Amino acid sequence: MATVIHGVSGIAELNLRDRLRHPFELVSAWLVTRRQSARIRRELNLLDERDLRDLGISRYDFDAIAEGRLSR
Q1: How far, in Å, CA of 52 to CA of 46, rounded?
Q2: pTM of structure
């Protein structure tokens, strides 16, 4: 539970741990996204030309697929 301290200015201030939680959560989420993207790229690199043709994609699409930007 967050500790709220009312400062002289009347604005509620959170303790240091609560203020630092958000940046750590952002970095953690970014790392999870990077790991997922790398895993997707590794799996796509295992496909041969016939599989790519069957799926209707090319090797140039890999970045967009891994980043979730490909729309068809």
Answers
A1: 10
A2: 0.66
